[in-house]
Amino acid sequence: MTEANPVVLVVDDEVQIRRFLRAGLELDGFTVQDAETGADALRWATLKPPDLVILDLGLPDMDGAEVLERLRAWSSVPLIVLSVRSNEAEKVRLLESGADDYVVKPFGMAELLARAHAAMRRHVRVSTGEPVVKVGPLAIDLAARIVTINGARVMLTPKEYRLLQLLAQHAGNVVTHQFLLKEVWGSPHLHDTHYLRIFVRKLRQKIEVDPTQPRILLTELGVGYRLVVPEGASQVAAAK
Amino acid sequence: MVRMEAVRRELRGSAIALAMVAVTTVVVYALTQSLEVRRGSVIYLLPVLLAGWHLGLIPALVAAVAGVLWSGYFFFSPYYSFYLSRPNEILNLVLFMVVAGVTSHLANSMKTQTEIARKREKEMGDLYAFSRRVAGASSAADIYLAIQEHLASLVQRKVVLFGTGSGGDRDAKPDQGALSQRVHSAIAEVQAGRTATTVDDGAGDIWLVRRVSQKNADFGVIAIDLGSVRPSDIDEVRKRVDDVLSDAAATLERLDVARALNDARMRSETELLREALIGSVSHELRTPLASILGAATVLSKSAVIAKDERLTSLAGVVRDEADRLNNDIQNLLDATRISRAQIRPRQEWIEPQDIVNSALERRRRRLSAHTLSLDVDSNLPFIYVDPVLVEQAFGQIVDNAAKYSPPGSPITVAAKRNGRDVVLSVHDEGVGLTAQENAQLGERFFRGARHAATTSGSGLGLWIAKAFVTANGGKIEAASAGADQGTTVSIHLPFATPASQPEVGPDD
After folding, report:
1. Nearest-CA distance A22 → chain B (Å)
2. Dihedral (C-alpha) A220, A226, A230, A235: value to the nearest 10 degrees?
3. Enclosing domain of residue B312
4. Mutate to test the interface with A, among B282, B289, B292, B354 (most CBs of A within 10 A)
5. What's the pTM value of the predicted model, to 2 decimals?
6. Measured between CA atoms, how close is A63 to chain B, in angstroms?
7. In a domain, B171, yes or no
8. What is the ipTM of this complex?
9. What pLDDT band is residue B41 in, cutting at 50, 70 and 90?
10. Contact A50, A32 (CB under 8 A)
């Protein structure tokens, strides 16, 4: 039974945080491995490759960003960063250097689990080649390049589709402005966030019930966009 | 070149002397012819005296020799010949030469004296002007500027002022970097306690480094480039510098600058300490808060608690209160950032509705007791702001609406275009504002007297919101028909059109 459970490596120097994370993650069906320091984390990550890493940025021995960088040199394990508020630039930097998502302290367990499951599902999707991403009523068939809402076909322009495709590939996780701009418009437009705003507005008019109150394509202010996975759709079993 | 100049000057002087001798000769010739004067060689002293007085030693000597020769020609036998034979003539020659020497020397030293007197007078004038300027100075900065300018004009060299090493606006002088290492170490020495020293900067210039005030080290240090002066002259310069500085130091004392400088230092240290304290306290508080909030969310999901409604709601209370506490801590941190002027908006183009939705989403639980209605225009222009700051400001206003209106009452959130502005507004049907409350709204720590006792708060929220909105070029306005008439608070943000538009072809 334990063998079948996914392993999560929790890297945090605060014992109380580790305690509630352990409880919450175990309740959700994970096997938890703790690490107090960056060095510890890197050792555990090689000794017993985890299925998920939860990484706090403030570690006693090295910067969380450095742990992330060193880990990413050889592993693509899903990784969620525990960040502090009001530092969007840092969040963007961490996402660009390979973090799958972040949660801002203090955070609720449900939020963390939703992000973690989304990241794990993406890795599974990449390895199994699962072509259809479902986000609530929205289904995106990445192989056939067909988008439907409740079964009804939605017609998108190539750029709108490209945008939605990138978000769908990371469904549930945040995707930075810079990444989207680079992938859709190319590097010269890396800072033209208004391009993105215009196309997201068009996209919302096609996929949202009320485009002024989006429920599917959400904005992460100062960071990027997120296709939201409805709550309840996240179970470890689904990822396995 | 200088030598050539001198030779030319002497030649010109000699020529003038000879001309004067010639004029004298004409006069003497007329005298000998008409008046039968036979003892007039003394007349030739006139050109010698004039030349010595005005033209210097060499022209005077030339005049002396020429004069003796001509007087021999007219007054001594053999008459009408330049041949000097009589002892009288030799005596005349020596006498004339001595007169030439003495006169030119007298004239010379008198000129020097005059020059010195004139220079002294100018210095006195300068010093007087300086004293008046210093006496009228209303701030230390004025005095320091006056000292620097006056000393620079006095020694005609570079003068650099330094603070005490522990702060003050005199530290940042642009040309400090040009000083040599030796001068720097002398300055450090004086800052450390010596009153004055002189140092050779290694490039041949002597620097005088001393305290501005001998008595009080707080007034800083001054370094004066004296150029390549002789050691014997240093004392004189030093004395003049002393005169200037003693005057200035007295005024500095009068202005109580010492205490002011000290106070400023203390104040900035206190400020730093306070902010460091807030910073570390809020970090210390947030970490356990993260554990409390996280643990509460885990508890509420556990099977035992989830099946008991009362326990679930208790876990909810823990979560909500931790959330509120976290907000208060965030406000404290934001307030420190504002007072340290550390708000640097990261502006980008943003859909106004994204700010509204984000703020409401974050507060979904806190707003659940109210009936929320949204009125957002679908085609609002984009605004160029820091979305995170504006969202925090807007969220603050939403929080206030929820806090100061009864549970169950409606809150209306709107995002509209109004002229050149995008207006985000929050309307509640709560306690409202009296005219006086509205006037004070947004002041730091202001809390309405009517509810200060019943509703908790720090009086920071709206002040922070105002600072954030102002930093983004917008403004906050509050309107209320009066007490218990409800309140509408709105954020006005100017919009502009992005400079470039994405090229949208048929295939996009």
Report:
1. 10
2. -110
3. 261-339
4. B354
5. 0.63
6. 17
7. yes
8. 0.88
9. confident
10. no
